[in-house]
Amino acid sequence: MKDYKFTRNTYMDTYNTDIKRRATAGGILRQFNETATLNMAAFPPRYNELLDSGRALMVSRMDIEILQPPMMEEPIQCSTWPVLPKGAVIGRCYEICRDGRLLARGSSDWTLVEIASRKILRMDEQTFPDNNFGDYVTIFDRKLRIGKETAASMETVGSHLVTLRDCDCNGHMNNTYYLDVLCDHIPELYDYEEHWVNSVRMHFAKEAPLGSEITIRRRKDGELYLFQTFLEDGSLNIECQLGIA
Question: pTM higher than 0.90, yes or no?
Answer without folding.
Answer: yes
